[in-house]
Amino acid sequence: MTHLLTRRSLLGAAPLLAGGLSLAGLPDRASAQAFGQGAAGAGPVRAMARLAGNENPYGPGPAARAAIAAATGDSWKYPIMEEMAFRAQLAEREGLSPREVLVGEGSSEILHIAALLAGIDGGEVLTATPTFDLVAVQARAAGAVVRELPLDAQMRFDLPALRAAVGPQTRLIYICNPNNPTGTMLPGTELRAFIESLPPAVTVLVDEAYLELAADMASESMAALVHKGANVVVARTFSKLHGLAGLRIGYALARADLIERMARLKLSSTGFLGVTAAAASYTDMQFQAESRSRIAEGVAITTAVLDELGRPHAPTWGNFVFFDTGGPAREFIAAMREAGFSLGRPFAAYPDWCRVSMGTVAQMRDFAAALRRHFG
After folding, report:
1. pLDDT exceeds cutoff 90 at 152
2. 88-94, long-range: CB < 8 A, 24+ apart
């Protein structure tokens, strides 16, 4: 299977594929060109719109940029006290204790730790396909048995099928909500009822990387279950709405005993600038609202042209749109690259469908014009 050039790819590739970083199975130049960059030291290959990584093309907000500039002189420090304060800041908004918060190097680290725990327990992991596959890949590497179930007819996680698949060895269920790559979202009421129906030995890892893009995050999040003592881990990131993918900050919300187990398997430490920027961005509500609005405008442009061209697409709550290209997705992706747009990879379960990440509003208008030329 072709490796995914997206958020949190293969854990070790987390520093955002900058400047031709090599990925397993891909030479430096190929991985760089997929994002419209030259090989290391070679400079740009061509003007290429990055519509593959589910990033925020507008970058960090004003508060985060100011915090980064002010903190640069202190970046020789380990952010020990800063991370403690940041955990307290996250906990206060959620009505939790800092002992129920774990900060990681992007939410990839949170997912990786959960996968390791499942493998250490020698249990089974349940998830869906297609979804973000880091947990499945790492759980298998850690010795867990992984079962991937198809999505339902609405391209969502099939909760009845997952519940029926739970057995005595099931230790972890991974649910990405909203889902990547489809963008579809399970209603919070349904997901909460599913989690509460599970045996106490089963932990549910809910990846909410894209939930901050939703208009009503609080009602859809599973964070309320942490208050109830449920066996749930909520993973979030500053890589999407906050535009801080290159600084790698994410966090988990869970019961204190789960956080303690996860903390023992921490793989790295956070950076001073990342923690400082995330803490500032967390309170910059105006920037967050503006980012949501711009991303929503890009989605509206994209879905409108797909409707105009009669191309089916999944309803999305993410910063990307998953749509039917009408033929092999690889051919469409290659055609769009020639037109100046870098898109994601095909997915085996939907070989004719393609995911396009939102660029700037101007880039999405250009992409809409490219779609009209391609399908016209």
Report:
1. yes
2. 89/279, 89/282, 90/251, 90/253, 90/282, 93/282, 94/223, 94/226, 94/253
Q: How far apart are CA 249 and CA 213, in angstroms?
A: 17
CATH topology classification for 62-282? Aspartate Aminotransferase; domain 2 (3.40.640)
DSSP 41: T
Contact 295, 213 (CB under 8 A): yes
What is the C-alpha to C-alpha distance for residues 143 and 172, in angstroms, rounded to an integer?
Answer: 13
Confidence of residue 20 (pLDDT cuts 50, 70, 90): very low
pLDDT score at 376 = 85
Average pLDDT over residues 133-137: 96
Burial 222-247 (b: 16+ CB within 10 A, else e): bbbbbeeebbbbbbbbbbbbbbbbbb
Pick the CATH number of 28-58+286-375 from 3.90.1150.10, 1.10.238.10, 3.40.50.11810, 3.60.10.10: 3.90.1150.10
Cis preceding-peptide flag for 199 (omega within 30 of 0):
no
Q: Which residues contact 9 (CB under 8 A, 6 or more apart)?
A: 3, 17, 23, 134
- Locate the domains of the chain by residue range: 28-58+286-375, 62-282
**Cβ(173)–Cβ(127) below 8 Å:** yes
CA distance 147 to 169: 12
